[in-house]
Write a structure and sequence with these properties.
Largest sheet: 3 strands, antiparallel
Oligomer: single chain
Distance between the termini: 26 Å
Strand content: under 5%
Number of strands: 5
Number of helices: 24
Mean pLDDT: 76
Order of helices and strands: HHHHHHEEHHHHEHHEEHHHHHHHHHHHH
Shape: elongated
Length: 480
């Protein structure tokens, strides 16, 4: 009777064959799919999401047409490119039957809404543009990005000091909150009184210099809009007439992006604007009321506080945390956590970096050179370049995918349940357990032994558990 080697017997045992692998993205998400929290209900009278998305598509209709022409259609045989040059704007205007001014405005909106991304001189369709016709969430996120950037869409008057403009942008969330709470028209003089009061409060707060390294007491956690850049000068003054003019500018800018309507000396939030302000206030409240107090926490503590949330609520937490600090410092802090030993926090750090988006691209590209971050960075870049999250793992080599499998298994072993670790076995790219064990042994992940020991202890199949234990021993002793 011919004897077979143990690995041959293992390969022939059908119980030890792996099922068709799930996407690695699914395996990563499994670690964070734990307890759910009841989703807050929007204010009474808020239209359904499908209706809000329909309204957002109307607001961004020209931007979508221009983005598709610039990044996809063109029809000239030339590579997709941006529309900053006047000649390109004229060509787009002729092709789309728009004026050059409409093209400039639409192109600006397309970029701010994430419909198109510029990589050097090449324009690529953003993931929201890919999903525009089928995904209401992508549409609403694109519109909210435009809403956040209203002060960039609608330039401030040139004769007003930039410091005064920055003050008004910083104070405007309170104006929007009043409009949202009023659930109807509010007279402009009442808005002006509130704006003046808030500007005075901000000036008083700036006089109290925070300790070095302390968070800004009027940081972006309360901001519902993006300032046009640069801190306001402490001595900036804006008279009553100037403040009134800046309020008019702000209201016009918000009306231009479809957030409110103006008429007869009053302003009213549109359904879209009302919903967006409510969503942002909820994001801030959710993070502020979380057990860890995530807005004020370090990146590591914030990620630990989000570990038991499902992906949707966790993204809300990331947004609120990011809004309270400069993006450059936030990206640096998140990557520092990703370099640590906790694999769960490494995965969550890159989920938070997905919320950051374009401002994180340069540092994520640099992280590709670091072995422990490379698979995560490659997946981030693939999704940033427009790949579907379920297809993004295709950019990884077999070795990188195996390293990520071990890293994810380490996260599950440290923070998850035994059953989840057993299910994680199904997500390996290899077709059989012997092939997986061979490649896991070769990949050199520092947690390989611990992962294999935990898997052997958790798996109910004695033959498979024995094979995994043998592999762990071989890695530990340096055997083959």
């Amino acid at each position: 009777m011919t004897s077979r080697k143990p690995d041959e017997q293992l390969a022939r045992n059908s119980r030890l064959r792996l099922v068709r692998p799930r996407a690695l993205a699914t395996a990563r998400r499994a670690v964070t799919t734990r307890r759910t929290r009841p989703a807050p209900r929007p204010p009474e009278g808020t239209p359904p999401r499908a209706e809000l998305a329909r309204q957002a598509r109307i607001v961004l209709a020209d931007a979508v047409r221009i983005a598709r022409w610039a990044a996809v259609d063109r029809g000239t045989g030339t590579p997709p490119a941006g529309l900053e040059a006047p000649t390109a704007q004229e060509r787009a205007a002729a092709a789309l039957h728009l004026t050059p001014g409409q093209v400039r405005a639409g192109w600006d909106r397309a970029r701010l809404a994430g419909l198109v991304e510029l990589h050097g001189a090449t324009a690529r369709p953003g993931w929201r543009l890919h999903a525009w016709d089928r995904d209401d969430s992508a549409v609403l996120r694109g519109w909210v990005a435009l809403f956040d950037a209203w002060s960039l869409v609608h330039p401030a008057p040139e004769d007003v000091p930039p410091s005064a403009v920055a003050e008004v942008v910083e104070a405007l969330p309170q104006v929007l909150s009043l409009l949202q709470l009023s659930a109807g028209p509010v007279l402009v003089p009442a808005l002006l009184d509130l704006l003046r009061q808030r500007v005075e409060e901000l000036r008083e707060e700036r006089c109290e210099v925070p300790a070095q390294g302390a968070p800004d007491p009027v940081g972006g956690a309360a901001d519902l809009t993006d300032a046009p850049g640069g801190a306001a000068d402490d001595d900036a003054e804006c008279g009553a007439d100037g403040l009134s003019a800046l309020l008019d500018w702000a209201l016009d800018g918000l009306a231009a992006v479809g957030a409110l309507t103006l008429g007869a000396g009053q302003a009213t939030l549109t359904p879209l604007g009302n919903w967006a302000v409510w969503v942002k206030l909820e994001q801030i409240c959710v993070a502020a009321q979380s057990p860890a107090g995530n807005i004020e926490q370090s990146a590591e503590d914030m990620l630990r506080g989000c570990a038991r949330l499902t992906p949707g609520p966790a993204r809300d937490e990331y947004r609120a945390w990011l809004a309270a600090r400069t993006l450059s410092s936030a990206v640096t802090e998140l990557l520092a956590v990703a370099r640590g030993e906790d694999a769960l926090l490494r995965g969550l750090a890159f989920e938070a970096l997905r919320v950051v988006g374009a401002p994180a691209e340069a540092e994520v590209r640099a992280a590709v050179q670091e072995a422990s971050l490379r698979p995560y960075a490659l997946l981030w870049l693939a999704e940033y370049d427009g790949a579907d999250p379920d297809d993004a793992p295709d950019v990884l080599t077999r070795e990188e995918a195996t390293w990520l499998w071990v890293d994810t298994a380490a996260a599950v072993a440290d923070h998850g349940e035994s059953a989840l670790l057993v299910r994680h076995l199904d997500s390996a790219v290899q077709g059989t357990v012997p092939a997986l064990l061979d490649e896991v042994r070769a990949v050199g992940h520092p947690r390989t032994v611990q992962v294999l020991v935990a898997l052997a202890a958790a798996h109910p199949d004695p033959a498979l558990a024995k094979a995994v234990r043998r592999a762990a021993f071989q890695v530990h002793t340096g055997g083959s």
